[in-house]
Give the backbone structure.
Amino acid sequence: MNKKMILSAGLAAVIAAVSTASASAAQLTESNRSGQTEVTARIEGADPGEVSYIIEIPDVVDFGMLTRPDVDDEDSYKNVEYTVEAAEINNLDPNNQQISVYVRDQNATVDGDQHFYITNKADSSKKFFYNVFDCEEGSITNSTDNIDSNTMTSAAGYYLTGFTAEGESLTGTLRLNQVQLYPHDLKDIVGDYSGYMVFYSMIEDK
Amino acid sequence: MEEKQNNKKKTALIIIVAVILSAGAAVMGVLTWQGYFDKQPEEKSEGVVGMIVDDWETGIEDTSSEQKKGTQIPGYSSAEMKKGDTSLKLRIGNPKENEVGFYATLKLSDGTVLYESQLLQPGQGLEEIPLSKTLEKGTYDAVVVYQCVALNEAHTPLNAAESGFKLIVK
């Protein structure tokens, strides 16, 4: 009889321990009313805080190997094309709104130097400027203005383009005139150069 | 006589087991009552961080079938919060189609930094971000700066993008 009572007490203790652990593993509390139920919904249009659009920018633009020209009285252009695209647009009013894209050098300011540069990675005092065009290389003529020929009046940068529909893109050209290299002794300027562009985008009224 | 002693030993053993089980049950009960099992594992915190998820989505349906060429940058029209809020619902992240990393910074046009992320790998992002300071009522020009980096050991900087939008504090 004694044994039975002891065994019953032990069994009760085991049941109590197991039931306590189960409750803690899947509790329905004030902060977890739904338990395992997943509720999903789809809301059309871009709510505040949601992604309204996606643009694609070039992560890197490589001028490749630059060459010091033999003469200094002749332009020696190195051109590289880049593309910016409106990959996705959600709920934009194309008649009244656009996604405006601006571009600037990472160090450019409205009140300071506004040029685009590539800089020697080992010595930042050695740098060369390049120009930015909003058209393909083949479309550039002597009368084509580079966008940085204007004054940069906005901290966002130079106005590049405006998108109103998905899939719209702009292919532009970066142009470095290698005649800049001519005055320098080659051994003084050899090395790796890099420059960084900043693409600013926002929804604006047309 | 010997059988009687054996019975006594068995009884003692059963009592000991019962006492241990009862003590275990009591401990489990106390821990559950104190909410020990509800606690989330503590995260390492460095400055202002947010809840970064690995399966972050832009929320925009991808309708294009073309191969992606550049780096995808999310843009916003607006974001809203209440005066005194310490967090903001804003979908900041690195689209999974990208092959670069992002460091994302939310700041106001006057340079006030409200949030800085750690490295966001492709597919990682946040849906609600903690703010370093609260804001008064008003409409602010805000921007999310996406600094792109190569996914190498040095995290070599690449071009950057900035997504401007209106931050409305009600």
The longest helix of chain A spans residues 2-25.
